[in-house]
């Protein structure tokens, strides 16, 4: 048996390649599918089956793309009317080599959610592993708020039943292969491990220690942000998207060309916040390269062409893949030579102030400072720097009225990266005196400075 995990950085998404005796299946493929072709080629296998555990919300699935290239069947849960592929029902069985894959209907995250068990018939009739999608993670369970707050209670009850009646009875030693890992927006406290087992989750997963009533109450009380791009991903993954067959060829744009087209494109600087603060093109949005999967969908539209800027061009290919997975086919090009070529050609630049936590500590009593925490609301409630105001980064642009323009805006987050994005948004919107606290609350606590909380 061949089994490989394909991780998508930033999204914390995990897809899977599994095969036996020349035949293979892919579970929850991403849109840039070349990696599955490479794995198949390396093991002399043909991809015959593609499974989607649910209609994903946080990225564009690559099932149609992969199916076009390898002529494989697509299967997904029957609880939703997809415009492509085939509905899979409880008890449906598929075979690839010595492997037997069986569908379990496990609604709760979404109505059509399925899990897929795997048996290696050459070894045993027992279930060996299960692909759980967004039903059960390592240390967590899936979100139940996708259909809105009015449906959370019913969805939570369904999820509890799915986990306790379908997944946990499979056996203590069964390997659990979830669709996401630590850092995903699809779960609050997912552990940072690749795989886990039924027995380990039964012992250690705090959500599995609750009664059904306690479980539902916990899920109803949960708070998540829903990025605006989720709706587009849901439509993409129900209706299907354009097939690329290859990544687009990005245009190399000179400094002169970028200056001429600046007002008609979305310019994103993907350098780290300290580099961006030291100098950048005025009016550009800063999202560090590995933050693109999490935050591009909050701020970039799908119509205006996107131009990327980094230091020297070395990060563009990875960022391009991140954006393609989010359906940003409007990537236009990149600044040739990166920001280095811009300032060498005497292009206009501006800076953002930075400060250490020690400098912030010394200026805490300055009444002209507005201290802005752009972490999630519940993180701020739990622990914060005294006197700070909270607006989550994703909703900052829509809540700028809460940020005074007549004060010095000092921004912090976990470690300074999200604060860098926030600082660039504030600068774009006319805030002249903006400072990013490098190291943010992580450095603040390392320095031994006090925090407060509710």
TrEMBL record:
Enzyme Commission code: 3.1.2.6
Gene3D superfamilies: Rhodanese-like domain (3.40.250.10), Ribonuclease Z/Hydroxyacylglutathione hydrolase-like (3.60.15.10)
Any Pfam family hit: Lactamase_B
Domain Rhodanese, residue spans: 261-351, 365-453
Keyword terms: Hydrolase, Metal-binding
Top-level taxonomic group: Archaea
GO molecular function: hydroxyacylglutathione hydrolase activity; metal ion binding; sulfur dioxygenase activity
EC category: hydrolase
An annotated GO BP: hydrogen sulfide metabolic process
Protein's name according to its UniProt entry: Hydroxyacylglutathione hydrolase
Species this protein is from: Methanobacterium congolense
């Amino acid at each position: 048996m061949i089994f490989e995990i394909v991780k998508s950085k930033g999204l914390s998404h995990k897809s899977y390649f599994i095969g036996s005796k020349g035949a293979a299946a892919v579970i929850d493929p991403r849109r840039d599918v070349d990696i599955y072709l490479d794995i198949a080629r390396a093991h002399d296998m043909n991809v015959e089956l593609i499974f989607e555990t649910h209609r994903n919300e946080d990225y564009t699935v690559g099932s149609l793309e992969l199916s076009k290239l390898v002529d494989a069947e697509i299967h997904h849960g029957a609880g939703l009317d997809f415009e492509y592929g085939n509905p899979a029902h409880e008890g449906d069985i598929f075979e690839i080599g010595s492997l037997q894959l069986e569908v379990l209907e496990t609604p709760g995250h979404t109505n059509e959610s399925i899990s897929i068990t795997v048996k290696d018939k050459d070894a045993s009739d027992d279930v060996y592993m299960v692909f759980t999608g967004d039903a059960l993670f390592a240390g967590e369970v899936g979100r139940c708020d996708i259909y809105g707050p009015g449906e959370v209670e019913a969805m939570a009850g369904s999820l509890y039943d799915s986990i306790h009646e379908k997944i946990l009875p499979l056996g203590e030693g069964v390997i659990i292969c979830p669709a996401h890992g630590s850092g995903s927006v699809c779960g609050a406290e997912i552990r940072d491990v690749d795989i886990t087992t039924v027995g380990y989750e039964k012992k250690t997963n705090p959500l599995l220690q609750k009664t059904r009533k306690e479980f539902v109450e916990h899920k109803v009380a949960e708070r998540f942000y829903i990025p605006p791009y989720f709706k587009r991903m849901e439509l993409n993954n129900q209706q299907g998207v354009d097939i690329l067959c290859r990544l687009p060829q990005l245009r190399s744009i000179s400094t002169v060309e970028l200056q001429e087209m600046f007002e008609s494109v979305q310019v994103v600087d993907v350098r780290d916040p300290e580099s961006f603060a030291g100098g950048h093109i005025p009016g550009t949005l800063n999202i560090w390269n590995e933050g693109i999967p999490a935050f591009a969908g909050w701020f970039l539209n799908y119509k205006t062409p996107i131009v990327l800027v980094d230091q020297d061009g070395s990060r563009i290919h990875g960022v391009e893949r991140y954006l393609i997975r989010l359906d940003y086919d409007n990537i236009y090009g990149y600044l040739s030579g990166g920001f280095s070529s811009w300032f060498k050609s005497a292009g206009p630049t501006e800076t953002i102030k930075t400060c250490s936590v020690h400098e912030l500590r010394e200026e805490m009593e300055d009444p002209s400072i507005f201290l802005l925490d752009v972490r999630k609301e519940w993180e701020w409630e739990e622990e914060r720097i005294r006197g700070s105001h909270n607006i989550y980064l994703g909703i900052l642009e829509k809540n700028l009225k809460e940020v005074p323009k007549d004060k010095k805006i000092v921004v912090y987050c976990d470690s300074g990266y999200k604060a860098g994005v926030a600082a660039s948004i504030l600068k774009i919107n006319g805030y002249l005196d903006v400072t990013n606290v490098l190291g943010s609350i992580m450095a603040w606590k390392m320095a031994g400075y006090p925090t407060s909380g509710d």
